[in-house]
Design goal:
Elements (H helix, E strand, L loop, with lengths): L9 H17 L5 H19 L10 H12 L2 H19 L3 H12 L3 H27 L6 E4 L5 E4 L7 E2 L5 H29 L1
Antiparallel strand pairs: 1-2, 1-3
């Protein structure tokens, strides 16, 4: 394995390669670009710590490296939550329901503002899914849709409403399905933004 940092001692090089090999193995669940960025950042941090001039001049290269790895901690400690956050962010962006629910739970645990944002996002998902279902069912039953009354009141209904007029019955399915799909995509992007901020906090 070729080192990207100049390590001359053979024992230190073996320790370095073993650490790098473990790092590559731990980062496998991530896309290759993410793997490379995180790996380079960790190895750079490790090499900087190892090259710190404040350490004892009598320490050998392998001792400095072992101390630097020890101070960095086990890869499981800092990589497991980082990988989980990145995968959650990616899956939420793709609209996976389980990732969306997990992201909403994570956001709700971070305080009052995050709890409020979670409530707003949760309601957004609820109404988006509701409109999608109604728009799809409208194809089978044209009475399903949005009804508005002379008083100005509006209702979502699964049946015809007396003394009310239906809103765009011809176009409701098309508008509802395309609009809810667009809203779902937008909500996923907002949730992904919150997840990314949570992982940095």
């Amino acid at each position: 394995m070729n080192n990207m940092f100049p390590i001359t001692n053979k024992t230190a090089q073996t320790v370095w390669n073993n650490f790098d090999r473990e790092l590559i193995h731990k980062l496998k669940p991530l896309p290759s670009e993410e793997q490379s960025d995180i790996r380079l950042e960790i190895l750079s941090h490790l090499y900087d710590a190892m090259s710190d001039h404040s350490s004892s001049p009598n320490e050998t290269e392998e001792i400095k490296l072992i101390n630097a790895i020890s101070n960095l901690g086990s890869p499981d400690e800092y990589l497991t939550p980082l990988i989980a956050d990145i995968l959650l962010y990616q899956n939420a962006s793709k609209g996976y329901p389980s990732a969306i629910l997990q992201g909403l739970k994570s956001s709700a645990k971070k305080g009052l503002m995050h709890a409020f944002a979670t409530f707003v996002l949760g309601m957004g998902y609820f109404w988006t899914i509701m409109i999608f279902i109604m728009a799809f069912m409208h194809i089978i039953n044209p009475d399903i849709g949005i009804w508005y009354y002379p008083t100005g009141d509006i209702s979502l209904s699964f049946e015809a409403q007396p003394n009310a007029q239906q809103w765009l019955p011809t176009w409701f399915s098309l508008i509802g399905i395309s609009g809810s799909a667009l809203a779902y995509w937008g909500l996923n992007k907002v949730l992904s933004y919150f997840i990314a901020r949570l992982s940095k906090s």
